[in-house]
Automatic annotation (TrEMBL):
Coiled coil residues, start to end: none
UniProt name for this protein: Motility protein A
GO biological process: bacterial-type flagellum-dependent swarming motility; chemotaxis; proton transmembrane transport
Major location (coarse): membrane
Pfam family membership, one: MotA_ExbB
Keywords, alphabetical: Cell membrane, Chemotaxis, Flagellar rotation, Hydrogen ion transport, Ion transport, Membrane, Transmembrane, Transmembrane helix, Transport
Record field: transmembrane: 7-29, 35-53, 144-165, 185-204
Occurrences of domain MotA/TolQ/ExbB proton channel (ranges): 99-216
Location in the cell: Cell membrane
Family to which the UniProt record says this protein belongs: Belongs to the MotA family.
Residue stretches making up the Motility protein A N-terminal domain: 6-86
Organism: Crassaminicella thermophila
Bilayer disposition of the protein: Multi-pass membrane protein
GO cellular component: plasma membrane
Amino acid sequence: MDLATILGIVVGIAFVIGGIMIDGSVLTFYNLPSIVIVIGGTIAGTLVAYPLNKVKDSLVIVKKAFTTKSLNPTEVIDNIIEIANIARREGLLALEEAAENINDEFLQKGVMLIVDGTDPELVRNILETELSFIEERHGEGRSIFDTLGSLAPAFGMVGTLIGLINMLKTLEDPSTVGPKMSVALITTFYGAVLANLIFIPIAAKLKIRSREEILIKELMVEGLLSIQAGENPRIIEVKLKSFLPPKQRKTSEDDQREGVEA
């Protein structure tokens, strides 16, 4: 569970409500027609922009913004080094048995390609093609939330225009101008909050999650090709750690030292 996402949304809502309550009442910001216009219009606009199956898929993708279930790159490197050691000791064919214990489908597929004696260039092409399609799927899911983030304020403005038009129809009674004007602006408020507290931040979080997953899979491709080339496991380890940021690389090395000392 990614507490940052949940905490950010909860704290954001709390601050908005708190700000309202300092100088007013939350009930004055409740308006059902405005909610219908903003949420209904935003969903409808998204359905116009994307096929229904893509919108359904985005509901699955959004889970990634609320979870931290992702592979640890240092653990992936350790797995690849273990595979490299097996290949060095027992040969590439011995990896077929080792592949059964690999949990990641992408890494397992790469190992089986090596076991089958696939040409290294073809292995790279297959894995990089799969990688590019994974990245494209992630991009589609993220773009739906970008669209939601752009449509919510737009439909907030539509609601405000509807409110202003209704207000102008009854302009002969000046006492109603103020209340109707405030109601008209509520839709803009709803649209801005939804876009800036929910949709745009989720799109940004999905972009980070996608980049993390792609980085790990790029690391897997490089590791698999190094194993197939018969490189020394220690050289492979140094090469793969170059994918990691210096801080994470240092932590990994510290863990290994502690393991040796223990």
